[in-house]
Amino acid sequence: MDFSEMDRLASERAQRVAPKPQYEPFIAGITGLMGASIVVSVFMGIAGLEAEAFGQAVSITSALGFAAPFFYFRHEEKKHSKAYSEEFRRIQIENSAASKA
């Protein structure tokens, strides 16, 4: 079995165990940041609050809006990479056992 076939098989198996995330972590984080900022802006506009008076709270909310999806998708990406590595290692072991027999 050549490398490209082993790679394909490991990718298929890893996809079943730990699917690759749908979104890139950074893009998901930026989307979360924008969503949180819009929600805070709308809420502050409806409540008639001054953004300057709540700068620290707005910053923390925006940072959390970025961090939550970023770290979630980064974790999923790492989980998929780990599953791929384990599957590739298993295929190599299977290959070496088959070639010795």
Give a verbal description of the structure.
This protein has helices at residues 3-17, 25-47, 55-100. With 101 residues, the protein is mostly helical. The model has no long low-confidence stretch (mean pLDDT 93).
- What is the helical fraction, as a range of percent? over 70%
Q: How many strand units?
A: 0
| Oligomeric state of the chains in view | single chain
Number of domains: 1
- Radius of gyration from the CA trace? 22 Å
Q: Outline, from the CA principal axes?
A: rod-shaped
Cα distance spanning the termini: 15 Å
- pLDDT < 50 runs, ≥5 residues: none
Largest sheet: none
Mean pLDDT across residues: 93
User: What sequence of helices (H) and strands (E) makes up the elements?
Assistant: HHH
Strand content: under 5%
Task: Count every helix, treating DSSP H or I runs of 4 or more residues as helices.
Answer: 3
The structural class is mainly alpha
Short description, anyone?
The protein is an all-alpha fold.
List keywords for this structure.
3 helices, mainly alpha
Helices and strands in order:
Blueprint: H1 3-17, H2 25-47, H3 55-100
